[in-house]
Amino acid sequence: MPAMPLPQRHRVLAAAAFLAALTGCSTVDGYSRSLVNTLTPYKVEVVQGNFISREQVEALQKGMSREQVRNILGTPLVTSLFHGDRWDYVFTLKRRGVDEQKRHLAVFFKDDLMDRVEGDPMPSESEFVTTLDNKRKLGKVPRLEATEAELRAFQSKNQPAATASAAPAPAPAAGTPPTSYPPLESVR
């Protein structure tokens, strides 16, 4: 291939750069946008305040003491010297790519007994947990319990030889927890 004169070579390079830029613009909604999202800096998830569930609010009853309310809702985020008969529970959750969640609940007292509750409608615990899905798929959660047969099979497979020759310990009565447990590490 013969060498191009310098001005023509610049035109070809400029045209190639222009076409590359033009095709890049058409993919902004697709691949390039996902590439840009992966290159953004990490933003910390900010959780502030007390999460109050609908179940907790439903457990409150007029006439409860301050201590009973604190046992159900936790320590209030805001207490004021100027409003001693009011406790404010505020909850905010800021996460990248998700709308900010803000909830507020005010508990009013009269003569140190709960009088009324005002605030945002609170989600149930299960509804709140579903809003926390951060698009990471962690895979299937393993079963965290073992059956009696699986435990016996595990014990027989992992029982040290020295212990196997010893007389077996008497089994505890049904329904009572054992008083001693096998060692965590085998003795050699």
Automatic annotation (TrEMBL):
Pfam families assigned: BamE (PF04355)
Keyword field contains ATP-binding: no
Similarity remark: Belongs to the BamE family.
Sequence segments annotated as region (Disordered): 151-188
UniProt entry tagged with the keyword Metal-binding: no
Protein name: Outer membrane protein assembly factor BamE
Gene3D superfamilies: 3.30.1450.10
Main subcellular localisation: membrane
Annotated Low complexity bias: 160-178
Location of the Outer membrane protein assembly factor BamE domain: 49-116
GO biological process: one example: Gram-negative-bacterium-type cell outer membrane assembly
